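Illustration 12: Nicotinate-nucleotide--dimethylbenzimidazole phosphoribosyltransferase.
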Amino acid sequence: MFGEMGIGNTSSASALLSALSSLDIDYCVGVGTGINQQQLSRKYKLVAQGVNRCRGLDTKAILAQVGGFEIVQIVGAFLEAKRLKTPVLVDGFIVSVAAYIATLLDEETREYMLFAHRSEENGHKFVLEHLKAEPLLDLGLRLGEGTGAALALPLLKAAAQFYNKMASFESAGVTV
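Figure caption equivalent — predicted structure in token form:
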């Protein structure tokens, strides 16, 4: 289960997504956990500066230019999860951008990703569509910090219990 914790990491996630996908900055940048119009205007300018520094760079160089340490580490963890053939529960926008980057580096990483929820960020909607991911929950969350993944985990555990332990008609002796 991957989540993130921090302030300002929607800015780096937005810059990464715009630089890697050629999506317009206006589409990628959102209000995050809730900022006013003046702060949003400043956020647009800072993200634009970061994206402009990335012109002509490859995926790893873009990640180095505008990715925060937490996003870089999560990308690496996705790649390692694929190597270990271990499924991972992906939280909201920031972690999904890390998932997107991991798939750009190794598209097979997608096979090990389960998406916890759909956030309100436009960029998150793009990533989910691009990765053909149908998240387990859609609660309008904007918090991050693993909250969506923490909510989805009991659902996954219950589904596994049903699948592994629920009696079939045959094992229960039910005839139809």
